[in-house]
Amino acid sequence: MTESTVRIGLVLPDVMGTYGDGGNSVVLRERLRLRGIRAEIVASTLGDPVPAELDLYTLGGAEDYAQRLATRHLIRYPGLQQAISRGAPTLAICAAIQVLGQWYETAAGERVDGVGVLDLTTAPQPGRSIGEVAANPLLDGLTQPLTGFENHRGGTILGHQAKPLAAVTKGDGNRVGDGIDGAVQGSVIATYLHGCCLARNPELADYLLATVVGPLAPLDLPEVTLLRRERLAAPRRV
């Protein structure tokens, strides 16, 4: 972190930003500002190398073609991998899980080498996983249920080095029948939860921020409490 400003990396929002996933970086910035901590969002698109020196990073979802563009870009410009190797906290949503993994297979059957920072692989499922998700966190430091919206055809299998983020109580998560969502490995937290994820899950947002700025005082935001109550009670399909 710089002396006065936390720098939040928004990685490839031009190709990895489905379902408003770019809002995760906004949530991080605003939760810091509400506590009197200066923060800024640094976006890097396909026209930019990803900076390696930022404080934390967020990546969102993407369709197949955009996902391949993002994968090639991150391999060509490995600033994100360098940041992860030094322990920069990183939130990866949906397709970003697959991009950061060892390989993923498209719906057309093409296998694409991933960035390789997560020990996991992804292949198409017979049908799409779509609808509301609720899950109990398995990561030390998180105690509140996680909530989000999933929409993905890929089914992700974790290797030995990646641990699940949460145990699913409603929805599919990584793959139909596995009962888990997401992956945690090193400084990376990955999940299939859109929403945007951190607006629905403020405890997770503060967990990421605390790794950068240290312990944070709680925020009393009644509208967030109401949002969580509504979404956790929402039916799987509308």
Describe the structure.
By secondary structure, the protein is an alpha/beta fold. It is 27% helix and 30% strand. Strand 7 (120-137) and strand 8 (146-158) form a beta hairpin. Helix 1 (23-33) crosses helix 6. The longest helix is centred in the first third of the chain and has 13 residues, at 64-76. The N and C termini lie far apart (42 Å).
Give the SSE map.
Layout: E1 6-11, H1 23-33, E2 39-44, E3 56-59, H2 64-76, H3 79-85, E4 90-93, H4 95-100, E5 103-105, E6 111-113, E7 120-137, E8 146-158, E9 166-170, E10 180-181, E11 183-185, E12 188-191, H5 197-200, H6 202-213, H7 222-233
Parallel strand pairs: 1-2, 1-3, 3-4, 4-12, 5-7
Antiparallel strand pairs: 5-6, 7-8, 7-9, 9-10, 11-12
Helix pairs in contact: 1-6
Write a compact overview of the structure shown.
By secondary structure, the chain is α/β, with parallel strands linked by helices. It is built from seven helices and twelve strands. It has helices at about 25-35, 65-75, 80-85, 95-100, 195-200, 200-215, 220-235, and strands spanning about 5-10, 40-45, 55-60, 90-95, 105, 110-115, 120-135, 145-160, 165-170, 180, 185, 190.
Q: Report the total helices.
A: 7
How big is the Rg? 16 Å
Kindly state the number of beta strands. 12
Spell out the helices and strands N to C: EHEEHHEHEEEEEEEEHHH
Quick one: biggest sheet?
Answer: 6 strands, mixed
Structural class: alpha/beta
Across the major sheet, the strand order is 2-1-3-4-12-11
Mean pLDDT: 96
Spatial separation of the terminal alpha carbons? 42 Å
Name the shape in a single word.
globular
Strand percentage, roughly?
25-35%
Unreliable parts: none
Helical fraction equals 25-40%
